[in-house]
Design brief:
elongated
């Protein structure tokens, strides 16, 4: 694997970690006011901006797509990731009776893998 691929992976993980932390912080702020599913959505919305800017500037800075094209594609990618996240989160908290935090972390990890694949080979195609 080339150094650039390792570097992109490093930045993807770093940006993803920061975005996940933002998501978790917003979730924590909202979960006492809204149902967990809505707090999760609020976290996603705020983290989306962090994620797009970070991935465009760091993870996939050599993208051959325009910013507008990448934004639209990443939005589709992020929404697909959020659907996976929310379905997993809801199944874990409602069906398996997991606590909010472990369920959200598990859902975020699952969605991150999906988001990487779609981002790397479609949204920020090289």
């Amino acid at each position: 694997m080339k150094i650039s691929a390792w570097l992109a992976g490093f930045w993807f993980g770093s940006v993803g970690l920061v975005a996940a932390l933002v998501h978790l912080l917003v979730f924590e702020a909202l979960r006492h006011v809204f149902r967990p599913e809505l707090a999760n959505f609020g976290g996603f919305v705020v983290a989306f901006g962090v994620s797009f800017v970070g991935h465009r500037q760091l993870s996939f800075k050599d993208a051959q797509t325009s910013v507008q094209q990448s934004l639209v594609r990443f939005m589709v990618t992020a929404i697909a990731g959020f659907v996976t996240n929310e379905l997993c989160f809801m199944a874990l908290i409602h069906n398996l009776r997991w606590a909010d935090w472990p369920a959200l972390i598990a859902a975020l990890v699952l969605a991150a893998g999906q988001t990487f694949v779609l981002s790397r080979w479609w949204a920020f195609r090289r």
